[in-house]
Amino acid sequence: MPEVLIKKTGVITTILLNRAAVHNAVDAPTAKALADAFKDFESDSQAKVAVLGSIGDSFCAGADLKAISQAEDSRALQRQLKEHGDGPMGPTRMMLSKPVIAAIQGYAVAGGLELALWCDLRVVEESAKLGVFCRKWGVPLIDGGTVRLPRLIGLSRALDLILTGREVDSVEAFQIGLANRIVPDGTALKHAETLANEIAAFPQLCLKNDRMSAYDQFSMDLPEAILQEFRYGVKTISSGESLAGARRFEGEESSKF
Questions:
Q1: Rounded Cα–Cα distance for residues 184 and 124 (Å)
Q2: Tell me, what DSSP letter sits at residue 217?
Q3: Is the separation of the CB atoms in 88 and 110 below 8 Å?
Q4: What secondary structure letter does DSSP report for 140?
Q5: Whole-angstrom Cα distance, residue 172 to residue 193?
Q6: C-alpha angle 133/137/140, rounded to 5°?
Q7: Which of 95, 105, 154, 238 lies in the 20 to 30 Å Cα band around 245?
Q8: Based on the number of CB atoms within 10 Å of its own CB, is 161 exposed (0-12), middle (13-18) or buried (19 or more)?
Q9: Distance CA 178, CA 174 (A)
Q10: Is 4 helix (H, G, I), strand (E, B) or coil?
Q11: CA distances (Å), 15 to each of 18, 51, 86, in order?
């Protein structure tokens, strides 16, 4: 069976980790398959939103530590890691132009948490558990976890999770901004795909430009970020998308009276 399954339904691409026997832990072939799947999504002009989910009882348990343990020594393990190209977990170094939603059931821990953090939004089942569980084993966050987690939930809360490796349930994840939606068990994928379709129904250039402006501002001071936002906005307006939207609004408002 392939490590990663891909389903295309209209403008939505669903990408599923398929290693349920190891709680969807990611080894090198799986990381490559995952990265390739998202590269294909990015290049697919028909695809608007992706959903990242998994088969089985867990979203992702992180890197496959059994596979890592087979390295002869630390130097052999280090040779498997590269500064450039795909991340150890696959797509975590990519900055896509289109949104990705994580559908999380069971455990999203260690590198699995980093995959979830890489996504734009996280739909989390009630019984899901998140955390930096790799703290116990001396395995570092190496797929953006120390960068994205503070940006999402703030440095103080992020350090609490990074330093303690403690478990976070769905309620706390929602309270601190780590989860965007809590849904009943067994429904994360369905709800994530519904949300993806809702997002895909909006005018896409405006949505994508506003999304990129939100990400770009992290590396800028306030005046530069405001100017960059303006530039993205002008691109959207110049495309004609805003004028078309204004005319639709006028027609809808007129029909109410």
A1: 9
A2: G
A3: no
A4: P
A5: 23
A6: 75
A7: 95
A8: buried
A9: 6
A10: strand
A11: 9, 6, 17
Q: How far is Cα 139 from Cα 97, in angstroms, rounded to an integer?
A: 30
Contacts of 87 (CB under 8 A, 6+ apart): 31, 35, 93, 142, 143, 144
pLDDT tens sequence across 54-80: 999 999 999 887 776 665 555 555 656
Both structure tokens of 3:
């490590």
Distance of CA 180 to the CA centre of its chain: 12
In the numeric block, which tokens belong to residue 7?
């389903």
Q: Which two tokens stand for residue 256?
A: 């109410």
Residues written for the chain: 257
**What stretches of 90-208 adopt beta strand conformation (E)?**
100-104, 107-109, 121-125, 129-131, 168-169, 181-183
Query: pTM for this one?
Result: 0.92
Residue with tokens 């495309």: 239
**Residue the block writes with tokens 């805003």:** 242
Interval 140-193: pLDDT, tens: 999 999 999 999 999 999 999 999 999 999 999 999 999 999 999 999 999 999
Give the pair of three-digit tokens for residue 161.
């999770």
